[in-house]
Design a protein that fits this description.
The protein has helices at residues 3-12, 14-18, 24-43, 56-61, 64-67, 72-80, 89-102, 106-132, 135-147, 152-156, 161-183, 186-200, 209-218, 233-241, 244-247, 250-266, 279-298, 314-333, 339-352, 375-390, 396-421, 425-435, 440-452, 456-469, 474-486, 491-504, 509-522, 525-538, 543-555, 559-572; strands at residues 307-308, 364-366. By secondary structure, the chain is mostly helical.
């Protein structure tokens, strides 16, 4: 396709670009332009992709606060809500801005995600070039980051706005901090703390950044000497604590600790109980996933949208222990001679820690989106290691260019193919099922996609397959009930499914809401009103709950009560007047 000619041109122009005829500043501008144009071109077709049925409804298409755009009420909700088991107000605000401009057109949301990824690529290049002074190695790190297939999920999935947005502030924080270390500017220091706070408000995964500041103090900034030996651990800690290099991290650690508390509180209902997922199972999965992420970084095939949580065999756990233990040992032993290896491994392991599954949230064993920041450390270690190896050969420039071009060309092709799987939910989850074990979530999302396309019978079959794998999933029972009454007119069967969902997960507003809709289809208005009221008792500020309750009350000739709820619906979502069902009250 396009990769071979493109990278061949770079190889041919190496001497021209790196020669005396081009200044360092101009060279950096050329590199950034090439990186940005290539990255934007690779991801450009995602602008025409639809919303996903997985989580995008919660984040955009069915989130009345996001669809309301930027307003005082929506901004207040963004900062006060723990919706979707997270507190990330800056992510909500960015999605609200998109909704203000684009409404329910997914193109703008995708363009914003791609633009952030392009900006992150440019920032990463400038960050490493500034810290190390090595322009071409920094360019290679940025190119790996931009074109790696594991990062497709973070860019293409609108729900993962939090990944690309938080990483923008992560890189800004590191850049400002690195600049602060050069001239001790208080302004730069406070700006770095501020951008870190913004990053935490986009995604709490950034809680490990204070440790990464210590890592880059060691390499490439060279402000921190490596520990003298492993045996003198406490002596090394005492020596470190006496230095200003630690005390200046206190504001960062305080922000990190505060966000950790907020996140645990926000995710308290989504956390898996230790009786359901025992700690030994979590440790085994964490060890194997950490190793598998690194292997997929080198050999990025068979990437899936969802990796089901299954017990890891003992032999895999032992292999992971040997691999990780050996890597850490090698990184420590070479800390003086190969500091980039030590720093890269530390970056990878530390940044992956919050999402490795020791505190299990959700049912996934791992996720490609979790590597968006961690793999930067491995990319840097790989790049500097290849460079040190290549300089021993006489024709090192040609060798380096050929190696870089081959690797990037291979990744570009894999990324191009991986982006294609995200063109719609059926393609994505059919591919995921084909390369992983069969799992309920894939069938659930495929069923939602079938329903959206008007293929209700196929949706029911997918829900049945999902329930055969997990009969105790309340969400699947609820979704099956919705398609039964909404698309097939089978309200009685829908009520049965929704009642099962209510038994499995009590006090869910959506379950009661859709049960009310099914009762309306059966003409049982009194029961419908009771279910609407239960939904409102759980979620009192949903305009659609108020509106539909008002419509049901009208059919029972309770006009005054109906008008009150319809007016409340219009108050909560003023722009919904054109979309909410209207009625003649005279």
């Amino acid at each position: 396709m396009i990769p071979r000619p493109f990278f061949w041109l770079i190889i041919q122009q190496w001497n021209v670009l790196s020669g005396a005829g081009m200044s360092g500043k101009r060279l950096k501008i050329v590199i950034v332009l090439v990186l940005c144009i290539l990255t934007g071109a690779v991801f450009a077709r995602t602008a025409w992709y639809p919303f996903s049925c997985n989580d995008d409804p919660d984040y955009v298409t069915q989130n009345v606060h996001v669809l309301a755009g930027l307003s005082f009420d929506s901004i207040r909700w963004a900062f006060s809500s723990f919706y979707a088991a997270n507190w990330h107000p800056l992510t909500w605000l960015s999605l609200m801005l998109d909704a203000q401009i684009w409404g329910l057109n997914p193109m703008g949301y995708h363009i914003f995600n791609v633009a952030l990824h392009v900006a992150n690529t440019a920032l990463l290049f400038y960050l490493f070039a500034f810290m190390t002074g090595s322009v071409w190695r920094s360019a290679f790190v940025a190119a790996l980051f931009a074109l790696h297939p594991q990062h497709v999920e973070s860019v293409v999935w609108i729900t993962e706005r939090k990944d690309v947005l938080s990483t923008f502030f992560w890189l800004m924080t590191l850049f400002l901090y690195a600049a602060y270390t050069k001239n001790s500017s208080r302004r730069l220091y406070f700006l770095s703390v501020t951008t870190y706070a913004f990053g935490l408000m986009a995604k709490p995964m950034l809680v490990t950044l204070p440790v990464i500041l210590l890592v880059i103090d060691y390499w490439p900034l060279g402000r921190l000497e490596p520990p003298s030996c492993a045996g003198a651990f406490w002596e090394n800690i005492k020596t470190l604590l006496k230095k200003r290099i630690v005390t200046e991290k206190i504001p960062f650690f305080l922000l990190s600790a505060g966000m950790s508390i907020v996140t645990i509180y926000a995710q308290r209902q989504a956390l898996a109980d230790v009786t359901v997922v025992p700690i030994n199972v979590r440790i085994a999965n964490a060890l194997w996933s950490t190793s598998l992420y690194a292997m997929k970084m080198i050999y990025p095939l068979n990437l899936a949208a969802f990796y089901p949580f299954v017990p890891v065999p003992l032999w895999k756990t032992m292999c992971a222990v040997i691999l990780l233990g050996g890597t850490v040992y090698l990184a420590f032993r070479t800390r003086h001679r190969l500091p980039y290896l030590t720093a890269g491994v530390a970056w990878y392991l530390v940044t992956l820690l919050p999402v490795i599954g020791l505190i299990q949230v959700g049912s996934q064993a791992m996720a490609d989106r979790y590597t968006y920041i961690p793999c930067i450390g491995l990319f840097a270690a790989l790049c500097w290691g290849v460079w040190d190896l290549a300089i021993r050969f006489p024709r090192r420039k040609s060798l380096i260019c050929a190696t870089a071009g081959t690797i990037l060309s291979a990744y570009l092709v894999c990324t191009f193919l991986q982006i294609g799987y995200w063109q719609d939910d059926n393609t994505l989850y059919s591919h995921s099922i084909a390369i992983t074990e069969d799992y309920p979530l894939a069938h659930n999302v495929m069923a939602i996609a079938y329903e959206k396309n008007g293929q209700a019978e196929l949706a029911v079959k997918e829900y049945d397959r999902a329930l055969a794998l997990d009969p105790n999933d309340a969400g699947i029972h609820r979704n099956l009930g919705i398609v039964l009454y909404k698309r097939l007119g089978k309200s009685a069967e829908a009520v049965r499914q929704l009642q099962i969902a209510d038994r499995l997960r009590p006090n869910n507003a959506l379950t009661h809401y859709h049960m009310a809709k099914a009762y309306v289809g059966m003409g049982r208005m009194e029961e419908a009103v009771a279910e609407y009221q239960k939904a409102l008792a759980i979620t009192p500020n949903d305009p659609y709950f108020h509106n539909d309750l008002g419509m049901a009350l009208l059919q029972l000739n309770m006009t005054d009560e109906a008008i009150k709820h319809i007016n409340e619906a219009l108050r909560l979502l003023p722009h919904s007047a054109k979309r909410l069902p209207t009625c003649n009250l005279r």
